[in-house]
Design a protein that fits this description.
The chain is of the alpha+beta class and 120 residues long. Helix content is 32%, strand content 23%. The C terminus is likely disordered.
């Protein structure tokens, strides 16, 4: 279990230092999705990952506008701007299922972290 936590910490650190692609919705806002009361900002590691996601959604024929945003900016600045609990979903729909950065302490600012596991 400690190894999995350590690997996730390394992944989180790498994500925070990396620029990712954030698709924009029809209003020019960051594209996001709701799941079980949590708003997830959907981001992609590269254009190929975004294209696979678009194809899986049946939206491969349209142009997907996106912004390049540093992972740390998403977690520290953008997540707190959203109403309610929010996190970041990296490479949603990928073969490995992608990675979720949930709205919990240690990932997002404490002011917007929620207690999802009863151990905050």
């Amino acid at each position: 279990m400690a190894t999995a936590r350590g690997e996730f910490a390394v992944l989180l650190g790498e994500f925070r230092r990396t620029a990712v692609l954030v698709p924009l919705d029809g209003n020019g806002d960051l594209w996001s999705a709701d799941q079980n009361g949590v708003r997830w900002i959907c981001v992609f590691s590269d254009e190929e990952a975004l294209a696979r996601f678009a194809w899986a959604r049946g939206d491969a024929g349209r142009e997907w506008a996106y912004r390049t945003v540093l992972g740390a900016r998403l977690l520290d600045v953008m997540v707190p701007l959203l109403p309610g609990p929010a996190g970041v979903a990296l490479d949603a729909g990928s073969e490995d299922g992608g990675v979720l950065f949930p709205p919990v302490a240690g990932i997002v600012p404490d002011a917007v972290a929620v207690d999802l596991g009863g151990t905050r």
